[in-house]
Specification:
- The C terminus is likely disordered.
- This protein has eight domains: 146 residues, Sandwich (Jelly Rolls); 89 residues, Jelly Rolls, CATH 2.60.120.200; 168 residues, Jelly Rolls; 40 residues, Laminin (Ribbon); 159 residues, Jelly Rolls (Sandwich), CATH 2.60.120.1000; 168 residues, Jelly Rolls (Sandwich), CATH 2.60.120.200; 35 residues, Laminin (Ribbon); 151 residues, Sandwich (Jelly Rolls), CATH 2.60.120.200.
- The chain is mainly beta.
Length: 1202
């Protein structure tokens, strides 16, 4: 291993002088030359010596031109030119460099591009400034393409400056030691730096070890081609150890730069950057750089092979592929063919004859790790042995019954591409990787002679270099995705990361509870990724889907904590650890429209803020880490509580109730709503040291609602209007997502340009969205077609485009997405420099007409509304959400437009909840009664000015039909379920009758009448006189039973025990009114009544009738749209489900039989023509005292008669 140090000063030295033009011809070499006048020594830019440049005998990809610069040199640029006065020039080439003229390494530009663009004629000079300088003595240029009407012709120049450094060589037993003198006082510095360069063929070894005060040490270690930095501190009993790894394939005998920098408490560890280092000599170290000879060969493609004569062998290989042929040859005496190959990362040997396997052995494991591995194959005295890495544990033996002696030729890596080739056959994958140290008949193979065609044969090989690339260092897999690779590509495993895509860039979760809600989800736990593809991790958060969607973030201490005076305790400190970390909390609060946190302080002789003039005894700390001296209900900096701000404290001389310092218990509570200070992280309680002091405090969870990003929109009303933002920086990964709605047929959503690169998303036609870009490989286009469904329908549509180093993808709504693979080894950096245009374009393409909403680039939302306020032709916001989201409102609910979104009006529905999907249910006991009372007729006529008006109102109370619907569950029979009466002693009763003789068999009776779904009663009732002036609707027991029919009175005396749910009579919802609006509705509740989930579907009720609308309480995957609940997953649950199905089928059949055998006689008979339609509902009020509105049941609802 070799080290070197460099000395740099503060002056910037120009390093761009010509390096080639002054060299003698003897410093030039080439693979061949057409003639003496076409020799490599004439290959100097702007010179006409000889034939005007170098030209080889043949123009093929095996030619090269080499320059010896005489010493190690810093090379900063290269230039090429064609051969003077000819049609010969090179149009593309590879640049190689070396310290020794052997073991070449390819120079790769930014984006890992290996090929340089050359000349297009013989006269012009094309110069390339190297993005990173090369430090080498030898340069080699390999032509890839040339003028098809000419041949390879080249003149060359390189630019740079001399490079000096101190070099030390280590043989594994020596070291350099720098030790401070015994009287040296340790110097405390704010910054320490260690830097060096090294190169080696060994893949493991210790480079640096340092020790300091307080048992601190630093070790830099090379292990399997990677650098590991070990930082240790502590004592023998308590030790802290941190390990950081960087780099890969560093055992390639090329210089690598390492820097370790400590700045205050931070350590920066980088590779391939140079600074200073000073060492003192001790041990066996020489100041020369020994250069071991190693000539590797690269098998890069499907046509690569190496053919050599010989027998027993040894070789080393390195690869990323799991499989590939290492060696094959035919055995003498036509015994068969031998194949030595990689299979599932192991070395396997097989001998075949006539399609039959004669021998099969394997050894080794994990040999596709990119490290050098040795393989020895020997056959002695009837014993065949394979050894991997010279380890006994990786050795396999076999004793075949036939001699294993090779024929005339050995084939490495593959076979010649010839149909007539019978000597080499490869039924396996070709080998892609590097080989070196090939020994045949115990003699090393001179691969340079192979390159010169002096021995053996080969095709498509890169001799004297190993072209392996570690595509996982650095890894392009984001968010913790695990990188694996093959020779030509890499793959990201995104399992358990919460992200998806070729590079694990895109989050699989939504960014807020608001988004989940508008996908139709209900209350539950969801993973929230607040910044999408950004660096903040997803977090499990409780979403309370009410009219306002609340994100609830719990912490570790939401219970009431009591404090009493204790000797020696002056303060109590409480720390609140939230379920989300500080970065997640900050993003959630910033994104929300409103956040709040309720705080409580109960006190007895324990002052809170010590108002009005004292220093606060209690304070709290939020995310700004600054003490806050105000309490819930007050404003920052006021040193007040809520009562002080409202002027209603128990003592007007103080601004907090507790500051009155009374012996009686008092309390201060309220909401903290200033987002910049939330959440509460610490609470310090101070006045608890006095003997009589007692206190209790509680800090509720943090609650936030609203999503400023989700509804952030702009309306573009002119094709020439646009919004502009700073340049979009998405060099390696770029994702763009937004919603749009329009009536226009085409338009550009956004565009950002560079010098050559660009990125654009546009609506190219009503049925096509196109994502186009160029990162230096030429324009690419990804297109999604909607299959005839127009996107200019003035409804919201979602677009998501992503471009990374592997592919580009485009998704529109739920249509099939499109993907475009990136070219192998192409440019990967997107370089933009113009402003980002939204809704328009800088390239004079057609602008966008319509609305764009929730525009996010790499997880960051652009504030369209703020920019639209100051931009002509663009308006902030965009109305009209019900056209897209109105179908979320269920059960006859009405969608209501809002500036930011929409809401569902459940006034005409018996359901509740944000989407009117929650069943309103209650459990009734025998004495429970709910009575909904209508207006009396005489009240309608008292203040009537005209008879016509009176007749109109009175006629509204005359019902031509009644629609009654509800769900119930009970074990009681007979029972009175619902009773409707009028002021004219007319009534309508819904009864649950006995079923003949089955009333005596209680078990059968309960089984038959345990209804697990809604029973919909559809009544259209009239008599000889109309059903006029309805007085009330009663659920459960009728309290005013004086004028009841005897049969009804008898049933009413029993009351009703069971569950009633979603009760609706025409447009009246009496149960909902009693439970949710008891103070504003004309309802009278007698007996115990509270809202219950008894009407909802549950595990005990796995087979609801098809007309119910249960809550989504089944189990689901976290974050995929279903909230997390407990789910029963066991064999017993499955068996129970099967039994329940069988019982349900039997009972259903019995119920059908009972229906026809014991149908209840109808009290009233319909005389109303069926063609008459009920009157329309009035949406103005959630509850009505006029029963005129009719809710028509849908035709697919079943009608039951009980």
């Amino acid at each position: 291993m070799m080290f070197k140090t460099t000395s740099l000063n503060n002056l910037e030295i120009l390093c761009d002088g010509p390096l080639v033009s002054s060299l003698p011809q003897s410093y030039f070499r080439s693979s061949s030359q057409l003639s003496n006048s076409h020799g490599p020594g004439f290959a100097k830019v702007n010179r006409r010596d000889g034939a005007g440049g170098w030209a080889p005998v043949e123009s093929n990809k095996y030619q090269w031109l080499e320059v010896d610069l005489g010493e190690r040199t810093e090379i900063t640029a290269v230039a090429t030119q064609g051969r003077y006065g000819s049609s010969d020039w090179v149009s593309s080439f590879l640049l190689m460099f070396s310290d020794t003229g052997r073991n070449w390494k390819q120079y790769r530009q930014e984006d890992s591009i290996g090929a340089f663009t050359g000349n297009s004629n013989a006269d012009s000079v094309v110069q390339f400034k190297l993005q990173q300088p090369v430090f080498a003595r030898f340069l080699r240029l390999l032509p890839l393409d040339w003028n098809p009407n000419g041949r390879i012709g080249l003149r060359l120049e390189a630019y740079g400056c001399p490079y000096k450094s101190d070099v030390a060589s280590f043989d594994g037993s020596g070291c350099l030691l720098y030790r401070f003198g015994p009287n040296t006082t340790p110097i405390l510095t704010a910054k320490d730096t260690i830097s060096l360069k090294f190169k080696t063929l060994q893949n493991s070894g210790t480079l640096i070890h340092t020790e300091g005060q307080h048992d601190r040490s630093l070790t830099l270690e090379l292990h399997k081609g990677k650098l590991f930095l070990h930082l240790r501190k502590g004592t023998v009993l308590i030790t802290s150890h941190m390990v950081v790894s960087l780099g890969s394939l560093l055992d390639d005998l090329h210089w690598h730069h390492v820097a370790i920098e400590r700045v205050s408490g931070h350590v920066n560890f980088t590779v391939d950057k140079s600074t200073q280092f000073f060492l003192f000599l001790q041990g066996n170290v020489t100041f020369t750089c020994a250069e071991p000879v190693s000539v590797p060969v690269t098998f890069a493609g499907a046509q690569s092979f190496l053919q050599l004569p010989g027998a027993a062998l040894h070789l080393q290989f390195r690869t990323w592929n799991r499989a590939g042929l290492l060696l094959t040859f035919d055995l003498q005496q036509q015994v068969g063919s031998l194949w030595l190959y990689l299979s599932e990362t192991r070395v396997r040997l097989q001998i075949h004859k006539a399609g039959r396997i004669l021998l099969d052995i394997a050894t080794g494991f994990g040999l596709n790790d990119g490290q050098w591995h040795s393989v020895d194959l020997t056959a002695r005295r009837g014993r065949l042995t394979i050894t991997v890495d010279e380890e006994e544990s990786s050795t396999a033996h076999a004793s075949p019954s036939f001699p294993v002696v090779s024929g005339n030729n050995l084939f490495f890596g593959g076979c010649p591409d010839s149909k007539n080739n019978q000597e080499c056959r490869n039924p396996f994958n070709v080998f892609q990787g590097c080989m070196r140290h090939i020994h045949v008949d115990n003699n090393p193979v001179d691969l340079i002679k192979v390159q010169q065609m002096l021995i053996g044969n080969y095709s498509d090989l890169q001799i004297d270099m190993c072209g392996i690339i570690d595509r996982c260092s650095p890894s392009h897999c984001e968010h913790g995705g695990r990188c694996t690779q093959s020779w030509s590509t890499f793959h990201c495993n995104c399992s358990n990361t919460g992200y998806s895509g070729a590079t694990c860039h895109s989050s699989v979760y939504e960014q807020s509870c608001e988004v989940y809600k508008h996908k139709g989800n209900t209350t539950g736990l969801y993973y929230i990724d607040v910044d999408g593809s950004g660096p903040i991790k997803p977090q499990l958060i409780y979403c309370n889907m009410t009219d306002q969607t609340w994100m609830v973030i719990q912490h570790n201490n939401t219970e009431l904590t009591k404090l009493k005076a204790s000797s020696g305790m002056n303060q109590h400190l409480a720390y609140f650890n939230y379920s989300a970390d500080a970065e997640q909390l900050g993003a959630i609060i910033t994104q929300a429209e409103h956040c709040e946190q309720e705080v409580f302080y109960h006190c007895r002789k324990s002052r809170l803020l010590n108002t009005p003039d004292g220093s606060p005894f209690t304070w709290w700390v939020g995310r700004t880490d600054e003490p806050q001296t105000y309490w819930g209900g007050a404003v920052p900096g006021s040193q007040q509580c809520g009562c002080g701000l409202q002027g209603n404290c128990i003592d007007s001389d103080h601004y907090c109730n507790c500051d009155a310092d009374r012996k009686e218990w008092a309390a201060d509570s309220g909401l903290l709503i200033h987002k910049e200070n939330l959440p509460v992280r610490w609470v310090v309680v101070g006045d608890i040291q006095r003997p009589e002091s007692e206190a209790a405090y509680r800090v509720s969870p943090l609650r936030c609602h609203g999503d400023k990003n989700f509804w952030n929109a702009a309306f573009f009303n002119k094709e020439t209007s646009y919004l502009h933002f700073p340049t979009f920086h998405g060099e390696l990964s770029a994702d763009i997502s937004f919603l749009f709605k329009t009536t226009a047929s085409s338009g550009v959503f956004l565009e950002n340009l560079g010098i050559k690169d660009f990125i654009r998303v546009e609506l190219s036609s009503p049925m096509d969205v196109v994502f186009s870009f160029d990162v230096g490989n030429g324009p690419f286009e990804v297109r999604v077609e909607t299959g005839g469904m127009a996107l200019n329908d003035d409804r919201w549509h979602r677009v998501r485009a992503e471009r990374n180093v592997k592919e580009a993808s485009l998704c529109v709504d739920a249509f099939p997405g499109a993907t475009q693979k990136a070219p192998a080894d192409g440019h990967i950096h997107l370089q933009l420099n113009s402003q980002l245009f939204v809704g328009g374009t800088a390239s004079r393409m057609k602008g966008f007409l319509g609305c764009i909403r929730s525009l996010q680039l790499n997880g960051r939302t652009l504030d369209l509304e703020e920019r639209a306020k100051i931009t002509p032709g663009v308006s902030p916001g965009c109305p009209g959400h019900c056209s897209s989201y109105g179908n979320l409102c269920q059960n006859q609910a009405t969608c209501v437009e809002r500036y930011n979104g929409f809401s569902c009006d459940c006034g005409l529905s018996a359901y509740a909840g944000p989407f009117c999907q929650r069943e309103v249910s209650a459990y009734f006991k025998p004495g429970t009664s709910v009575q909904y009372t209508f207006k009396e007729p005489y009240e309608l006529t008292r203040n009537t000015s005209t008879q016509s008006q009176s007749s109109s109102i009175y006629s509204d109370l005359t019902l031509r039909g009644e629609n009654v619907s509800f769900s119930f569950r009970t074990t009681q029979s007979p029972a009175l379920l619902l009773y409707i009466c009028s002021y004219y002693r007319e009534y309508l009763a819904v009864l649950l009758n006995r079923n003949g003789k089955r009333q005596r068999d209680k078990k059968k009776y309960r089984s038959i009448f345990l209804f697990t779904g809604p029973i919909l009663e559809d009544f259209n009732l009239t008599s000889d006189t109309e059903f006029n002036a309805i007085k009330s609707v009663v659920l459960g027991k009728v309290q005013e039973s004086g004028e009841l029919d005897p049969e009804i009175a008898r049933l009413n005396s029993l009351g009703f025990s069971g569950c009633l749910s979603v009760v609706q009579f025409n447009s009246i919802t009496p149960l909902k009114a009693a439970l949710l609006y008891p103070n504003t509705s004309p309802v009278i509740v007698t007996g115990p009544l509270s809202e219950s989930t008894c009407g909802s579907s549950s595990p005990a009720n796995p087979y609801p009738a098809e007309t119910t609308h249960p809550l989504s309480d089944h189990s689901g995957t976290v974050g995929t749209g279903e909230p997390i609940v407990n789910a029963i997953k066991s064999d017993s649950a499955l068996i129970g489900g099967v039994i329940a199905v069988v019982i349900f089928v039997i009972l259903s059949a019995l119920a059908i039989i009972v229906r026809f055998l014991y149908r209840r006689k109808e009290t009233f008979h319909s005389q109303e023509p069926k063609s008459i339609k009920p009157e329309a509902d009035s949406p103005e009020y959630p509850f009505h005292s006029e029963p005129t509105s009719q809710n028509v049941l849908s035709e697919n609802q079943k009608e039951y008669f009980i």
